[in-house]
Amino acid sequence: MVTMTGSEVAAFADSVRGVLGKLWPGARAAETGAVGEVWDAAVAHGWFELGPQRALAAALAAVRECGRVACPLPIVDGYVAGAILGDDATPPGRAGRVLVALDGGTDTVRYAEAGTAATHLLALPAPGGTARLRPILAARPTPGLAAPAWCELTLGPQTSTVEVDASGVDDALVLMRLGLATRALAAAERAHQLAVEHAKLRRQFGRPVGAFGAVAGRIARCQIELSAGNLLIADAVRRCESGAGDWRLAAEIATHHARAAAPRVQLGAHHTLAATGYFEEHDAPWLFRRVHADVTRLAEFPRAAGTVADVLVESTAGLPTVSTVDEMRGRLRELLSGYRGGERTGEALDDDPELVRLLAEHGYLELGPAGQLVLQEEVGYRRLPANAALAATTMLGNAIDRHGTAEQRAAFLPLIRQGRLRFCLGYSEPEAGSDLASLRTRARRDPDSPGWIIDGQKVWTTGAHLANYVWLATRTDPEASPPHAGITVFLVPMDTPGITLTRHRALSGETSCTVTYDGVRVPDTARVGAVNGGWAVITDALSGERVVMAGIAAALHRQLDDLVAAARPDPVAVLGPRGGAARERLAGLAVRVQATRALVVAAGEAIERGAGGRLEAPMAAVLAGELAEDFGEAVLEMLGPEAALSGVFEYGLRLSIMYVVGGGTNDVQCGLIARGLGLPRPA
Q1: Do 122 and 10 fall into the same domain?
Q2: Residue 614 CB: number of other CB atoms within 10 A?
Q3: Domain termination residue (choose one: 271, 288, 314)
Q4: What's the rounded Cα separation, in Å, for the pair 508 and 559?
Q5: Which UniProt keywords apply (predicted)?
Q6: Which residues are catalytic?
Q7: 5 CB burial (10 A radius; 0-12, 13-18, 19+)
Q8: Which helix (H) or strand (E) holds 452?
Q9: Is the pLDDT of residue 325 over 70?
Q10: Are 532 and 520 in a shared domain?
């Protein structure tokens, strides 16, 4: 096996792009392009030698480049054929002009891609047995959605055979499906990129179309689908090349995601491009054909194991882990196994001091972002009561470390590491929820001391009745332009005179408060960061908050496992037979749980690199919130009234609203994503 480094794969992709640029320069080449010429060049450049080397990352890099220009070069067919036939194949098998299909027991194969350029077909037995390499005697194009057209092939007698066991056939089918899914997603991504550029430049009603909220929201959601899909594909490749036992499930998760996401992204791109992208002078129509042709052909390679849902409910398999810090995960699991407090379900409860002490003593409250995500996932999955301590670490630790004074770091970081800093967020106001830059709570210089006087009101302050500090955003320059330039952050003791609370009970059962600040005097030492420099402080804290909000993925993962456990004793009774709507819905939920987990990890890694996670974190938050709502509704439909009785499922549904509106509503998060892609702000 050849495992290329990331830079080597990138260089290989650049080489593929260069070859395609000469022979298949864009998606419009699909109308008249000669696949055979590209195939010859690919063979000459060694693209069809990747199968025997098991260099899957490189093969899929080439597939992505082909997808971007709507070229149907069957690279994965060649990869699979090379892996199966190896050095024992006749020259046509080694040279690469081979297609792969399941053996239908006839001399005819339909829906063949690039059939007019192929010379042979490898017929795979299901579930295992003799694979036959057969020459293609005739290829009749069958015009339709695909461009170039699919073909109906007439096959001759076998020229060679090889025995393939059931596992080998399953590997081949998984790879064929993953290749089609990867190419479809790449084609959709190219259409999306064209749509993003169009949205920046195309003007309607006096402004760029990307400044309209509906357009920006659509583009943001397409970006979420693409980012999650690429992460899932990359994870499947890593697992395959490392020989992980769960690589097939990871690949099926990636394939399922791309099967659903690629058409949605492609249609979203067309909606943004509007009439510009509807006519065949543009690349979009040819990318549209590629996406839908590839997604449709997935049905030609069914697995005996079935869908993602079938695998989960008919075996003991669970979702693969998504973190790269497995050594730490193992130590943490061992530590948590010794905690005797047990899990807690239902309405929000306070931290267990014994658990917090256990985590603090072993250094788990002073981890970097990647480690914090593992901690949140393991604690959240087990439903253990340490949310407040973890939130302080994730939201405030990094911000205080970066923006606090030496005295503040000395005072507060030890409290955070010990799990003893109980705080609440003083952000939202009656007239400033997600639009934090519009806040009105005023901090003015105290004429009688070197401190400040704070007046105003904050709302929806969760946990304020339990907190000993408030992380408070105030306006210190009412005339600042833009408005966020006049904000300053303070860390204020909640027992300061002038602070009063009014409690409110939320749908989830937790308590939030309206907090009034009336002539609250604080010293300047309570200020975190520069005067009027609070936006940078808030941004660092918000990145952590959005990762915390996306940490619902851990709870949803547990709920998914609970749902699967409920179905496993009799899957047909609970979910119906294979191929039914309930199983398809369960598969979709499982895939979205995994996609959310992957985005959460990507956000943590971006924060760890110093990039702030300012694109990945809101993407994770949007996906997590919408998944929470959909999951809660789906469980009620699948399990019926039993799921509505007091317990984790009905509580999860009640809590789900918070994960869509908390920390900035999903609509606002989509605006952040859109601006991260370079779209203009709304007018």
Answers
A1: yes
A2: 18
A3: 314
A4: 16
A5: FAD, Flavoprotein, Oxidoreductase
A6: 545
A7: exposed
A8: strand 452-462
A9: no
A10: yes
